[in-house]
Design goal:
There is one protein chain. By secondary structure, this protein is α+β, with helices and mostly antiparallel strands. Helices cover 53% and strands 20% of the residues. It has 33 helices and 31 strands. Strands 1, 2, 3, 4, 21, 22, 29, 30 and 31 form a nine-stranded antiparallel beta sheet that branches. The longest helix is centred in the C-terminal third of the chain and has 37 residues, at 967-1003.
């Protein structure tokens, strides 16, 4: 092999160079996003049937849809929320389901029951994936343009240009107003001419005609024949003929006022305290967020002249900034790690040529590994970049081990030329075994499901890709570079140890000679470290995903039930004043009656998105806490909740938006409401619990018009006739549309709002009977106020109320343990029971799955070691060392105040492979099991173990310290690995040889052959 490699060294190095260049090309094509593109197994169905009572909506709309969707193959859970005339249904499938097929099947199931649903029912079904929320949000404000003109520009001018940007999937426009013509009919004047509302509606529709009536051929040409009588202006609308006869004609202007107006809406949108139009840009699956942002900025610069005067376009949300900052942080972490690694190499080896080789190897490996990311359809995101940063120490480790071995072999034969490649090949088996030990631990991650598997499989692919390339480079390129660059005196200088290394080697030998004949000390060390690890485990809190500062957050608000839009706006003006005087706030946008994630929203609810300054004194969690407290103190009656956008997105995608969710099941909604109130009170008493919501959402008061069929029949009308007239008089009916420029302007037929603005006036509202006489609404119906009704929630067709809360300042596991203890003391009514959901439920599933992954990793490593050595004593020695290192990881987490979350668990799994890798190189050096030989092998591995551990620790230090945006996501992983590496050095060098010697002595074996 050495001779072959020597003959083909040019082609091998050229091949590796091609891999690096291909990696550079792939890096330019990889999609860039915040999180991996994951097909979340959830479909959301929203259906609207108009204004129906909640109970009737539940029976006629929600239940038929739930039953139809339950029959879709693969459905695991269905959850619905029913309000007045509308329902939101979340359909959960098993992970791995083909969601395109599932969506088509869900739509087919809904279409089959659509004819039996209330007339006019409309529905929308959508897949839930990371693209459901905008990646970029623009706010348009103007002091000169009207809300109608501002929305027109946003929708018809700006939106088409944004949709032309590559990677953009959808552009939503919120806010502003839409123009329409309003025909305000006087019912009494209408009666005086013997006309009905239907006559007005029919006349308007019949007068606004543009249609093809035929075709004619003449002189080799084909002509289309059009019959047209279009309406264009409000004057033409007023001249619409309603009636003609001997006495003349009656036109629309005789019975109605025609004036420009706007489409009625019960929402408000603003930005930085000013009325605004928001443009929300969503990307395609696999789109490049950063590229979309750059293209949009370029478009706005190029089209600056076409932007109407007085229009200001600002950014209220920009996900690309977080992605860019996170990528820069990871890049800086890699660079810092590389520089520190070079300094360590210089310190230990005191040779620039060796450092140059590592400086060549590290970027080459990382660039070539990008090619593998491209092959496996990955992209640049916070998980893959974090995986590459975490792999820096391991990559350097492979190169250092190979170089140190080559230097030692050269220095053993002074004055003679030692074949470098043959010396390097001596390390092929332990190098392959150590690389396999690190990579094999990621195999069980491929079987993980849920959000844990979805996110961390991307991290595992990035690390395995880097380690695969690192092995090839260390095995092929490093020896070739050493053959070219290194000289005999380089090896002699590198192998000449300084006084402190000599002193450390003597200390190591004395300690090991003391431990080898004393099994009790070995047992004591094992028990002591294991006890420390168990104690630390009990002290470390558990969590789910690491918290990350996104630079902005969502503030959801809820005014008291039934609060009008105007009163809600008044309350929110006070919130906007608080935000305007907060030095940490850069900008904000507000939606009332709407929300970022969609769903059922009343006029008293909505959300802010608050964007923070990049340079600020307080962290985002302190800002959110302070803001909540100020709103609580200064704006009584307004309930607020805070959360970061990506944090909420993950919750929405998994249908578990809150960390704490106590689900209360039962048959009686009133009983469930009472129990939910008690549960909320008990939860609020737990330290660390904030933003408690009892799960009861009141839809607001209603005016109930109960039509008496008998009285209506005596007047010659049916309840349906009365309802149709009420709909036309009050809400209005768009009877035709007029083309105006790029849009169609509706013509709305309605009565004056002053005629029904109060309950007493509503009772006197005039209705027109079929025989032409008028009667008041109060003659055929009872009009009364009805208190607000609670929205109804079900899960798997069972009535349910979900009490939710967030956690602040404490770990999830600690809070949930105390919360469960308090709720266990409750006496629940018969037929009522509790279940725990939310992110806590996801965390429990994830922790159980990761515990199995860790166990599987240990077993796979055991299998690999048994294959390499066929000795249980070696397997037990190495695995005992790895397990004790895991105990020290818990101590490191406790010492740094880090939660045991899923990122930390991945780090713990990696420690098993890293410790095994180091141990394999120790046994590669060992020739027999005598104390002298154990000491010699340990001293031979002392310097490389110290070097690789220090390099890996320093490379991970920037991530562990959470330096830069997005680094918090990988900090627990880095802390876990660093803690294990700190423990690895003494355990591998002292404990493992002592344990191995003790086990071999028990068996009475003295192997003479080396293990390599």
């Amino acid at each position: 092999m050495g001779d072959w490699l020597l003959r083909h060294r040019r082609s091998v190095l050229f091949f590796l160079t091609l891999l690096v260049l291909a990696g550079v090309a792939a890096a330019l094509k990889l999609p860039v996003a915040l999180f991996p593109q994951v097909a979340f197994p959830r479909i959301e169905v929203a259906a609207d049937a108009g204004n129906l009572p909640i109970a009737q909506t539940q029976l006629t709309l929600t239940q038929p849809l739930e039953q139809a969707l339950r029959g879709v193959p693969g459905v695991e859970k269905i959850r619905s929320t029913t309000s007045r005339g509308a329902t939101d249904i979340s359909v959960q499938f098993a992970w791995g389901t083909a969601m395109n097929t599932a969506l088509l099947q869900a739509e087919s199931a809904i279409n089959q029951v659509l004819p039996s649903l209330p007339a006019g029912t409309q529905f929308r079904a959508r897949r839930m994936d990371p693209t459901v929320d905008p990646i970029l949000g623009l706010a348009l404000t103007s002091s000169s343009l009207s809300p109608v003109a501002l929305r027109h520009y946003a929708y018809y001018d700006l939106r088409p240009r944004l949709l032309a940007i590559s990677g953009v999937a959808q552009v939503d426009v919120q806010g502003g107003e839409q123009a329409e013509y309003q025909v305000i009919v006087d019912p009494l004047r209408l009666q005086s001419y013997g006309l009905h509302f239907q006559d007005v509606s029919r006349a308007l529709a019949d007068s606004n005609i543009i249609t093809a009536v035929g075709r004619i051929q003449r002189h080799y040409r084909l002509y289309q024949i059009l019959s047209e009588s279009p309406l264009r202006t409000e004057q033409e609308i007023g001249q619409t003929i309603l009636k003609s006869g001997p006495d003349g004609v009656v036109d629309l202007a005789d019975v109605a006022q025609i004036r420009p107006g706007v489409v009625p809406q019960w929402t408000t949108v603003s930005a930085d305290g000013k009325a605004a139009v928001l443009v929300n840009i969503k990307q395609q699956i696999g789109g490049n967020t950063v590229a979309i942002d750059h293209a949009l900025r370029r478009l706005l610069r190029q089209d600056a002249a076409s932007i109407p005067a007085g229009v200001k376009i600002s950014t209220w949300y920009d996900q690309s900034q977080l992605i860019t900052a996170a990528a820069s942080s990871v890049r800086d972490a890699i660079l810092i790690g590389a520089v520190l690694a070079a300094l360590v190499l210089l310190l230990f080896l005191r040779n620039l040529r060796l450092t140059l080789i590592v400086a060549i190897v590290l970027p080459s490996v990382l660039l070539a590994s990008v090619l593998l990311l491209y092959v496996f359809h990955q992209g640049f995101n916070i998980m893959t970049l974090g995986g590459m940063a975490a792999a820096v120490g391991l990559v350097v480790d492979d190169a250092v081990v190979m170089l140190e071995h080559i230097m030692r072999r050269i220095s053993e034969h002074p004055g003679t030329r030692v074949p470098v490649l043959h010396s390097a090949l001596e390390l092929s088996k332990p190098l392959a075994g150590s690389s396999a030990a690190t990579m094999i631990i990621f195999l069980p991650l491929g079987f993980l499901s849920g959000i844990t598997g979805a996110f961390f499989q991307a991290l595992a692919i990035a690390i395995v890709a880097a380690l695969t390339v690192s092995f090839l480079v260390a095995y092929l390129a490093v020896p070739l570079l050493a053959e070219v660059l290194l000289r005999q005196k380089d090896a002699e200088r590198a192998e000449h140890q300084g006084p402190w290394l000599i002193w450390l080697g003597k200390l190591y030998g004395r300690v090991l000679h003391y431990l080898l004949p004393r099994p009790a000390w070995i047992l004591g060390i094992f028990i002591g470290v294991a006890a420390l690890g168990f104690w630390s485990y009990t002290q470390v809190g558990s969590g789910f995903m690491p918290r990350m500062d996104e630079g902005g957050f969502v503030l959801d608000y809820r005014a008291p039930p039934g609060t009008s839009l105007a009163e809600t706006d008044r309350l929110l003006d006070q919130v906007q004043d608080i935000l305007a005087h907060n030095s940490n706030v850069l900008s904000y946008s507000r939606r009332t009656g709407l929300q970022l994630g969609g769903g059922i929203t009343e006029a008293n609810t909505g959300d802010f998105f608050i964007r923070l300054k990049s340079q600020r004194q307080d962290n985002i969690w302190q800002i959110m806490s302070d803001l909540r407290q100020r709103i609580h103190d200064e704006v009584p009656g307004l309930h607020v909740e805070t959360g970061q956008l990506m944090e909420d997105l993950i919750g929405d995608l998994t249908a578990v938006p809150q960390p704490i969710e106590v689900k209360i099941y039962g048959g009686n909604p009133e009983t469930l409401g009472a129990v939910a109130h008690q549960v909320a009170q008990r939860i609020a008493q737990v330290p660390g619990v904030t933003e408690v919501f009892d799960g009861i959402t009141i839809a607001g008061d209603a005016v109930d018009i109960h039509i008496d069929p008998v009285r209506a029949a005596l007047a010659g009308m049916s309840p349906a006739d009365v309802t149709r007239q009420l709909h036309t008089l009050m809400q209005g009916q768009v009877v035709t549309r007029i083309p105006t420029g790029q849009e169609m302007i509706g013509v709305r037929l309605r009565a004056s709002r002053s005629s029904w603005s109060q309950i007493q006036k509503l009772r006197r509202l005039p209705l027109l009977a079929p025989d032409g006489h008028y009667l008041q609404l109060g003659q055929v119906a009872d009009v009364r106020l009805q208190s607000g009704q609670a929205e109804l929630t079900t899960e798997n067709l069972k009535p349910m109320v979900a009490v939710t809360a967030r956690i602040e300042g404490r770990s999830m596991g600690t809070v949930m343990a105390e919360l469960k203890s308090r709720l266990a003391q409750m006496r629940l009514p018969a037929g009522v029971y509790l279940q725990y959901g939310g992110l806590y439920q996801e965390q429990q599933r994830a922790m159980q799955a990761l515990a199995l992954v860790l166990l599987a990793a240990i077993l796979l490593v055991a299998l690999l070691l048994l294959y390499l050595y066929e000795r249980f004593s070696v397997v037990v020695s190495i695995l005992s060392t790895a397990i004790l290192s895991l105990g020290c990881v818990f101590f490191g987490l406790w010492l740094t105040g880090t939660e045991r979350n899923i990122t930390a668990m991945i780090g713990m799994t990696m420690i098993v492979g890293i410790v095994t890798e180091t141990a394999i190189f120790f046994f590669a050096e060992l020739r027999d099991v005598t104390p002298v030989e154990l000491s010699r092998a340990g001293q031979a591995r002392l310097r490389p173990v110290l070097m690789t551990a220090i390099i890996a620790i320093l490379a991970l230090l920037p991530l562990a310290l959470g330096l830069g945006a997005g680094a918090e996501m990988q900090a627990p992983l880095a802390i876990a690995i660093i803690s294990g590496l700190v423990a690895e050095v003494p355990l591998v060098l002292w404990f493992m040889p002592s344990l191995y010697g003790f086990l071999e002595n028990l068996r009475g074996r003295r192997p003479a052959a080396r293990f390599s």
